[in-house]
Amino acid sequence: MSEKLDGLQGRDTVYIDTDDDITSIIEKVSESENSVVALVPPKRIGALQSVVNLKLLLKAAKTNRKKIALVTTDKALLSLAAGLRIPVAKSLTAQSELLDIPDMDDSDDDVINGKDVAVGDLARITGDEKIRRNDSREDKEISAAVAAIETDDKIKNDIDADGTPDDKQKTKSKDKRKNVPNFDKFRRILFIGGGLAVLLVAFLVWAIGFAPRATITIATKTRSVAIDGTITLSSNSATNIDENQIQPVLKQIKKSETMEFDATGEKEVGEKAKGKVIIKNCIEPFNDITLKAGTILTDKGSGLKFALDTDISIPKAIVSGNLQIGIKCTKAGESKPVGVTAVNIGEEYNISGTKDLSVDGGYNATPQAAFSGGTKKTIKVVTEADLATVSESLKVKFNDDIKESTKKELESQMGDSVMAIDGSFTDTFGEVGVKPEIGAEVESGKATATLETTYVMMGIPNSDLENWLTIQIENKADINEKNPQKIYDTGLKQAKFDFNNDTKILRIRTNEAKIGVVLDENEIKKNAVGKQSGVIAADLEKISGVENATVEFSPFWVSTAPSVDKITVKFSTDE
Fold first, then answer.
1. Quick one: angle between helices 22-31 and 51-63, nearest 10?
2. Torsion 539-544-550-552 (CA) sign
3. What is the CATH number of domain 271-375?
4. Which residue from 375, 197, 177 is spatially nearest to 272, judged by alpha carbons?
5. What is the largest CA-CA distance in the chain?
6. What does CATH list as the number for 3-98?
7. Of 233, 349, 238, the residue nearest 298 (C-alpha)
8. Alpha-carbon torsion angle 15, 19, 21, 26, nearest 10
9. Is the distance from CB of 434 to CB of 382 less than 8 angstroms?
10. Do domains 3-98 and 271-375 have the same CATH topology?
11. What is the C-alpha separation between 529 and 562, in angstroms, rounded?
12. Beta 377-381 vs 312-314: how paired, if at all?
């Protein structure tokens, strides 16, 4: 009967390839993290078809404190597993069990009676018997080999067969595995080692070819040159250094101030009355008459005056009588209704329709209806006096603090490449703007005034100043091919400036211009290549006009000057 064991759950599963030898199988079992290992052999069971290999596998499992089970249905492997008491499962999900060793059937059917067997059959049986004897002999030889291995381990005090005496093994980690080659570990070591080698080569290339630097600082003996000259600043002319003319940089800022004030002026405003009249002609009996637009009509009672809106034609009058007895107007010529407008504003011009109007020229007119639309009221307005007063108040607001802060703003706009000329700063007031305008109605009685001021400052590009000073120094020191000198400092930083804003003339003075020995920077670099710092400094200090020289190498392992492109030369003067 077979004996049921624990299931295969909670264990590692190891799949064995056909090409795996017993060493690699043992290694896989040893490296397993769980104490129970299920081995799944291929269809061709390979290394596991040997009893010796299975015994070695059992010994290795025991040494590593592990239990193994086979997952197989191969009859030959099942027979070997039963003989060695190795648990077997038919699948990964089945329970593992110890198989019984097959019993020999001693029935009469299996007993061979030599008397009843033919000679040929007896010979065959004898041959089969030899095979069984050979198998028995092989088992004995295997047992003897395993026994010899175990005896050898005992002699070497290495029962667990890990290659290390057991008395020394106690001092080692309990989890140390047998000395089986680990090719994955070897590959990792090889990969890390290769990476480190690449990094080392890269570092050496950088350290030798790119990192080295040298800085040579040369202090020279110089003499001072005093400069005092003038240049003209012209915004409309291009820069001409030889003619002492420079086009300045202009920067400006506009700022506004607004103030509310009371309007003090008064003004009458309103609408003019309008109406229509019929003009009568009882004077001219012979011809029609025409009156021009603007002809004045006067109210006979009040004296209020109106003006014709358009030209109008009036028929001639019909008269009777003669010169002797007198002429009498029997029927006046009447015009069509014509519009008139009051000369001035006011409600009083809204006259009734019964008024009689006289027309310049002796004619009469009567309204067709009452006149209307005449209005008048008194309003507040801004006067010229108001504007003058508020303008002065606004100018006071642009005080010295505002001017100073604005000047700093303009200087900052110049930037580092332009030198601001302090004396060129100006402020200009614009026209004062008023809302509402002068003469317009101020409904609330409050008006506002705004004053805009423009601030302007000039600057000169430092490059133009450097060029101008260079020319002045060369002329003053008589520098030429026969008298070569190097300008180490134009003295610009220490220069003083006086600017006349009316003439736009700038005076420049400096006593700090420095000239000295001419040194070829490229030649210095070429001569330094490959030399130590002390040698480079000594060679330079031999040159007339050189006060001293210092040489610095970097990084710290550099001992000689590198190539020309990695050398920097600096000059300093004896200020």
1. 20
2. negative
3. 2.40.30
4. 375
5. 209
6. 3.30.750
7. 349
8. -20
9. yes
10. no
11. 6
12. unpaired
Contact 387, 357 (CB under 8 A): no
Closest alpha carbon to 227 in 502, 29, 497? 497
**Single-letter amino acid, residue 201:** V
Helix and strand counts by DSSP (H, E) for the chain: 11, 32
449's tokens: 């005034």
Cis peptide leading into residue 285 (ω within 30°): no
**Two tokens, residue 421:** 């000329």
Nearest to 33 by CA among 13, 16, 48: 13
Q: 122-158: per-residue pLDDT in tens? A: 333 334 444 344 444 544 544 554 455 455 555 556 5
Name residues whose C-beta falls within 8 Å of residue 462's C-beta, 6 or more positions apart in sequence: 417, 418, 419, 492
State which amino acid sits at residue 74: D
What residues form DSSP beta bridges with 489?
514
Pick left, alpha or beta for residue 532 (phi over 0 → left; psi -120 to 50 → alpha; otherwise beta).
beta
Closest CA to 488 of 507, 473, 498, 510: 473
CA atoms within 13 A on the CB side of 286: 1
pLDDT in tens, 433-471: 999 988 888 888 899 999 999 999 999 999 999 999 999
List phi, psi (to 5°) of 380: -90, 135
How far apart are alpha carbons 179 and 164 in whole angstroms? 9
Mean pLDDT of the chain: 82
Residue 23 CA to residue 60 CA, distance in Å, equals 10
Give the angle subtended at the CA of 461 by the CAs of 481 and 253, to the nearest 5°: 170
CB 532 within 8 A of CB 540: no
Residue 44: helix, strand or coil by DSSP?
Answer: coil
d(Cα 361, Cα 308) in Å, to the nearest integer?
Answer: 14
**With 0-12 CB in 10 A as exposed, 13-18 as middle and 19+ as buried, what is 324?**
exposed
Task: Report yes or no: 417 and 289 within 8 Å, Cβ to Cβ.
Answer: no
Contact 439, 267 (CB under 8 A): yes
Q: Where are the alpha helices (DSSP H) in 278-376?
A: none
> Distance between CA atoms of 305 and 291, rounded to whole angstroms?
16
**Side chain identity, residue 178:** K
DSSP alpha helix (H) spans, 436-493: 462-477
CB neighbours of residue 419 within 10 Å: 20
Strand partners for 265 = 381
The rounded distance, in Å, linking the Cα atoms of 312 and 206 is 110
Residues 6+ away with beta carbon under 8 Å from 206? none
Residue pair 425/407 in contact (Cβ under 8 Å)? The answer is yes
Nearest CA among 391, 396, 333 for reference residue 359: 333
Strand, coil or helix: what is 293? coil
pLDDT in tens, 178-234: 455 667 777 888 889 888 999 998 888 888 878 899 999 988 888 889 999 999 999
Domain ranges of the chain: 3-98, 271-375
Asked if residues 287 and 314 have their Cβ atoms less than 8 Å apart, the reply is no
Provide the pLDDT confidence category of residue 165 given band limits of 50, 70 and 90. low
Measure the CA–CA gap between 66 and 229, rounded to whole angstroms: 103
Q: How far apart are CA 332 and CA 366, in angstroms?
A: 13
